[in-house]
Amino acid sequence: MAHVVPVPAQVTVPVKDTTDLFPVRRVYCIGRNYAAHAVEMGHDPDKEAPFFFQKNPDSLDTSGRFPYPPKTADVHHEIELAVALRSGGRDIPVETALNHVFGYAVALDMTRRDLQGEAKKAGRPWEIGKSFEHSAPITPLVPSAACGHPDQGRISLRVNGDLRQDGDLSQMIWKVPEMIAYLSAYFELAAGDVILTGTPSGVGPVHRGDRLQGEIEGLGALIVSVV
Questions:
Q1: 59: in domain
Q2: Lowest-confidence pick of 41-50, 57-66, 90-99, 155-164
Q3: In a domain, 16, yes or no
Q4: Where in the sequence is the domain holding 22, given as residue range(s)?
Q5: Helical H runs in the chain?
Q6: Which residues does 192 contact at the CB level (< 8 Å), separation at least 6?
Q7: Any idea where the Fumarylacetoacetase-like C-terminal domain is (predicted)?
Q8: Which of 13, 121, 137, 191 has a CA-to-CA distance to 28 between 20 and 30 Å?
Q9: pLDDT > 70: what percent of the chain?
Q10: Residue 38 has what pLDDT?
Q11: What single DSSP character describes residue 212?
Q12: Are 143 and 15 in contact (CB under 8 A)?
C-alpha cells in the first residue's frame, strides 16, 4: 500500500535545553479568558461560558519570524500561555487534569482582526482570522518537571520596547485544569494536544518591521520579528 500524495511532515515543538521534540496533534484556543480583555472586546466576562476555537498544528512556528499575512490590514498580537499535553482522555476530572500536562511555553495568537470581525458579524467561524500560516509563534517547551504548573506570574508583551500587554496568569477566568476538563467533555484529548489559554488586555496591531517580545514569568521570552 502506498500513499497517493507525499506524507505531510509531523509538526513538532522543541523541548528547551534538549534535542527532544514534542509532536503536535491538535491546537485548541480559548477565547476571552481574561476579564479585562473580554471587556475591551465588548463582552461581559461574568455571563460567558468558556468557548474554544482551533488553529492548525502547522500554525505553530518557532522560527522567530512572523510573515505579515495576506488579505488583511489589521493583524493583532495576543500573548498567551501554551499548555502541551503528555496524555489525554475523555471526561478528565479537574482534580487530576494537571497529570496530563507535559509542559508549558510562551506563545502568540496572531489574529487577522478585520477578517475575524467580518466573520463575527456574519455569524461564521473564526478560522479565517485565526488559523493561518505562522499564526502561533511559540517558544520551546519547558517541561512541568522543571517549571511546575504556573498558575500565577507576570505575562506581558512589548512591541518595539513599548509595553502593550501586562497581566498575571492568576487573572485567567478558566484555569488550566478547568480548561482541560471542559475540553475533554467535548473532545477526546490525547498526547500532542496544545492549548492556548487566552490573552490579557492590551491587544493591538502589528506592522512590518515590528519586534515583539513576550514574556511569562518562569518560562522566558518569545522574540518575534514581523516581516
A1: yes
A2: 41-50
A3: yes
A4: 12-226
A5: 35-40, 113-121, 127-130, 144-147, 176-186
A6: 22, 23, 24, 25, 26, 84, 85
A7: 27-226
A8: 121
A9: 95
A10: 56
A11: E
A12: yes
